[in-house]
Amino acid sequence: MLLRTFFDRTGGSRAVIAMPHGWVRTEMGGPTAGLEIAQSVLMVVDVLTGQRGCQGLFFLSYFGNSLDWQASSANARTKAHFPDFYSA
Hints:
Short chain dehydrogenase, two-stranded parallel sheet, elongated, mainly alpha, 88 residues, 41% helix, 2 strands, NAD(P)-bd_dom_sf
């Protein structure tokens, strides 16, 4: 909702991107996480650089793949509470 509102306020003139950074080896991610910090940062920067000049609201993986907004259970709960917003 926050990104959607922010994007709407830009008038659609720029790219607004939601992107998980992956499971990173940090104190929080733990020693068995799949990515080193430097790997995660480079992947995120590559994806963001690739979106330069684009316009739109995007949910992308750190590989640059488009992710489905609907896949999130939190999103499903949000849709249940705000059906008018999602039916437009």
